[in-house]
Write a sequence for this structure.
């Protein structure tokens, strides 16, 4: 018997035994549902009965739960066995399976490449007949009011559709849609929970299998938006209350969105809202696949579990079909091979089909079904999905970005496939970012914004590097803020500065008016873009829902950021008129103070840190301060300023030539850098080489890094030692994980600048002082 025949034989026997548990009855007896719901009542009444015939839904687990409250539970259990006929009473260790699980098993096996003939048996034929009668020929409608009813019905409709059943009644889908609308109307699309997430995955899968699914396009779009919103706003790992494996909701999402992209391509869904939705679907889909790959153990398993490994292999088998995974297909196939090898070799006790563990919430026969499906699907031919997606992962610019990131200390030891995967994820964000690129600042007389392409890459790479998995919405908000910060820097230097040349105090007044909402009738060329920028930051929904402290803090820091640009313009003008051989001979401040104030504020790091604090406040701890104690607030500020100072030093290290060309003040221009030796032989009149100045600046940056690391450790220690609830401590741990990602992103930009300057260059026209493209 060949390998395929062996798998088919195992699957047929598995389904036959599982369905045989109920004999010819596929539907669950309603009394069993009642018995399950009232298990505790049944146990309590045991004491008053001389004998008892236990229903299948009362288990030893129920007695164990009851025993925690009643010491006499165990003797009572013994008495039941004693008084039973021939003392042969037995109590199940776990619940019997439900028909919903059997449906899940059949759907999984059929999706993986099995066909009905592979699984056919008298038991299966009888079960399908009962199912078809219930949802086809019978006039009885599904009972409303059960919380899981619509999800279960969706599974059964999906199964009948996969079997190409002619019994599927035309109004069955309408009933499911009506029930879905009753449970979750369009007005509640933002109301999310784990159960509704999985339920809506099943509903959408059923809708997409329907031949005339375009009839339900508004509902398809609405459910897809709901699923996207749920994924995008979930911080960390996504969990499902009905299954303890973290990969189970990933599997549902990957199946659903893969089918959605396939269906959308076949039906040419290309209107603007759906196109934006398609981009968000691709992002969520790729993230689920990538995070699955990142979770695989060295032995090929996921968490050493047959169940989780089966989910992992099934997810990656779906990932093979996606056009945008092309550049990591080799690793996907390798991961699948290792996972299948584990599934074939692993030995795990499988209890008789039909026993559901209350601890794991997954029946052994269902685990076995997923295992067989994973092995089958791994070798099943694939049908490509989303072929219209244009893969940019192999173009010259993208490859250059990958090589640049690999040269940084942060990523020098990260596997190439992982960096490439983060790059693919970043490219998926580009359409959304491109739509916002020129909405705030006009980019006139500028070179190409080469930073624009690398910004999403820095966030996805750092998010995946330590498996932070911050919410997708947070990543997107920070990507947008990052390119706006670059544009604000360009705008203040190339537009606002020249417009207020010789009258920078008026520019300060303009900025002040923007923050107090005073009318302004002056320079609209400067006022309007800055107004849009400030509005984008301060009226962001996440900022508005943050704590009053965090909301006010980001406003202060944003004001300081813009004022620092005005001061920097003044310093640039003063430097241009007083420099001697590249030295700022009439500096108004010491380098030490300047780099920690004007220069650090100018980097945008402090206000960006305040902004991400608002995102954390509004998501992880709604209504609470991101840093709730005095000590946390102080250490967070100290951490931020060390980070900003270090970032400025790295930035200046990499931009010496650009600043020299554009006449901008750089750290190495301060008088202190004219003496870089401890020997008395070097005087201020000595000509110190540019490389020596840069080396000194780099040494200062490393000094700041050591202080930064110390402060971060103290902040983490403050959280670890504090007395708080487990839930609040979990939020605090997630906060620190996100902040470490923020530090990594900021640090990464500095490391990139050490290798190569990525800012846009401008050149002053010597005739009129205007900026133009560098020739």
């Amino acid at each position: 018997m060949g390998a395929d025949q062996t798998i088919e034989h195992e699957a047929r026997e598995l389904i036959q035994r599982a369905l045989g548990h109920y004999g010819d009855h596929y539907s669950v007896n309603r009394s069993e549902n009642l018995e399950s719901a009232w298990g505790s009542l049944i146990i309590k009444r045991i004491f008053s009965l001389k004998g008892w015939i236990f229903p299948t839904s009362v288990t030893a687990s129920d007695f164990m739960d009851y025993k925690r409250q009643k010491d006499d539970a165990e003797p009572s259990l013994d008495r039941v066995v004693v008084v039973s006929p021939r003392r042969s009473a037995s109590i199940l260790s776990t619940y019997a399976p439900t028909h919903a699980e059997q449906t899940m098993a059949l759907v999984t096996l059929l999706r993986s490449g099995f066909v009905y003939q592979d699984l056919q048996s008298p038991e299966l034929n009888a079960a399908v007949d009962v199912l078809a009668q219930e949802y086809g020929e019978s006039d009885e409608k599904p009972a409303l009011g059960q919380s899981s009813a619509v999800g279960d019905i969706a599974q059964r409709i999906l199964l009948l559709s996969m079997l190409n059943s002619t019994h599927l009644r035309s109004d069955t889908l309408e009933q499911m849609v009506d029930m879905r609308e009753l449970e979750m109307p369009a007005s509640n699309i933002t109301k999310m929970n784990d159960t509704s997430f999985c339920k809506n995955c099943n509903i959408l899968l059923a809708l997409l299998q329907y031949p005339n699914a375009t009839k339900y396009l508004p509902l398809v779009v609405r459910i897809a938006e709901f699923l996207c919103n749920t994924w995008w706003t979930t911080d960390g790992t996504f969990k499902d209350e009905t299954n303890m494996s973290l990969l189970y909701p990933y599997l549902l999402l990957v199946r659903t969105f893969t089918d959605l992209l396939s269906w959308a391509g076949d039906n040419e869904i290309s209107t603007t809202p759906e196109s934006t939705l398609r981009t968000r679907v691709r992002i969520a889909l790729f993230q689920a696949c990538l995070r699955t790959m990142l979770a695989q153990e060295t032995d090929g398993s996921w968490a050493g579990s047959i169940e989780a490994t089966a989910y992992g292999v099934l997810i990656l088998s779906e990932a093979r079909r996606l056009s945008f995974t092309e550049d990591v297909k080799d690793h996907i196939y390798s991961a699948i091979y290792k996972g299948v090898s584990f599934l074939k070799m692993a030995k795990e006790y499988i209890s008789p089909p039909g026993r559901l563990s209350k601890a794991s919430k997954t029946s052994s026969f269902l685990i076995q079904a997923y295992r067989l499906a994973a092995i089958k699907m791994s070798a099943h031919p694939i049908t490509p999905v989303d072929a219209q997606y244009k893969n940019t992962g192999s173009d010259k610019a993208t490859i250059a970005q990958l090589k640049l990131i690999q040269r940084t200390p942060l990523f020098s030891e990260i596997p190439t496939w992982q960096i490439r995967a983060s790059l693919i994820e970043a490219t998926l964000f580009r359409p959304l970012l491109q739509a916002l690129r020129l909405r705030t600042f006009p980019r006139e007389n500028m070179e190409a914004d080469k930073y624009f392409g690398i910004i999403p890459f820095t966030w996805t790479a750092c998010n995946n590097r330590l498996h932070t998995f911050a919410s997708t919405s947070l990543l997107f908000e920070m990507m947008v803020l990052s390119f706006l910060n670059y544009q604000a820097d360009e705008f203040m230097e190339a537009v606002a500065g020249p417009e207020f040349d010789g009258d920078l105090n008026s520019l300060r007044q303009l900025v002040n008016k923007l923050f107090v909402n005073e009318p302004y009738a002056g320079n609209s060329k400067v006022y309007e873009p800055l107004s849009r920028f400030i509005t984008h930051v301060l009226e962001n929904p996440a900022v508005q829902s943050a704590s009053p402290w965090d909301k006010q803090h980001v406003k202060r820091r944003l004001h300081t950021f813009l004022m620092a640009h005005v001061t920097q313009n003044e310093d640039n003008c003063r430097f241009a008129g007083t420099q001697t051989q590249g030295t700022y001979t009439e500096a108004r401040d010491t380098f030490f103070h300047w780099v920690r104030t004007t220069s650090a504020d100018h980097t945008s790091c402090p206000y960006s840190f305040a902004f991400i604090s608002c995102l954390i406040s509004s998501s992880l701890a709604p209504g609470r301060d991101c840093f709730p104690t005095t000590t946390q607030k102080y250490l967070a500020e100290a951490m931020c300023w060390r980070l900003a100072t270090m970032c400025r030093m790295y930035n200046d290290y990499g931009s010496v030539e650009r600043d020299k060309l554009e006449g901008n003040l750089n750290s190495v221009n301060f008088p202190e850098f004219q003496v870089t030796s401890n020997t008395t032989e070097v005087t201020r009149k000595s000509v110190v080489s540019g490389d020596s100045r840069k080396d000194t600046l780099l040494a200062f940056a490393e000094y700041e890094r050591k202080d930064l690391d110390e402060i971060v450790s103290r902040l983490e220690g403050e959280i670890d030692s504090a007395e708080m609830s487990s839930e609040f401590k979990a939020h605090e741990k997630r906060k620190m994980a996100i902040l470490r990602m923020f530090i990594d992103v900021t640090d990464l930009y500095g490391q990139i600048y050490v290798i190569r300057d990525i800012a846009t260059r401008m050149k002053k026209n010597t005739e009129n002082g205007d900026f133009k493209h560098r020739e």
Remarks:
- The radius of gyration is 32 Å.
